[in-house]
Amino acid sequence: MTTEEVCCGLRVGQDVPDFKLETYEPSKNDFSEVSLADLKAQKKWTILIFYPADFTFV
User: Fold this and answer.
1) What element of type H or E holds 23?
2) What is the C-alpha separation between 2 and 21, in angstroms, rounded?
3) Euclidean distance between CA atoms 6 and 28, whole angstroms
4) Of 8, 10, 20, 28, which cross-links 35 as Cys (Cβ 3.0–4.6 Å)?
5) Distance from C-alpha of 24 to C-alpha of 18, rounded to nearest angstrom
6) What contacts 30, CB < 8 A, 6 or more positions away?
7) Phi/psi at 22 (5° precision)
8) CB 58 within 8 A of CB 51
9) Contact 36, 18 (CB under 8 A)
10) What is the per-residue pLDDT across 25-37, written as a single tens digit (0 to 9) for each?
11) For residue range 37-56, what is the model confidence (pLDDT) as tens digits?
């Protein structure tokens, strides 16, 4: 197994695996769930941003 296979995750141009996340919608004061498959099915543009720690400014 190479270092690239172990530590480097996704590369530009690769597909992101499907995932589900719990979300909070402040305007509705309610929680819901969103999945990448649902967004793709709705043909929604999706931007994924990852940062190293929660509650940090992006």
Assistant:
1) strand 20-25
2) 31
3) 41
4) 20
5) 20
6) 24
7) -85, 135
8) yes
9) yes
10) 888 899 999 899 9
11) 999 999 988 887 766 666 65
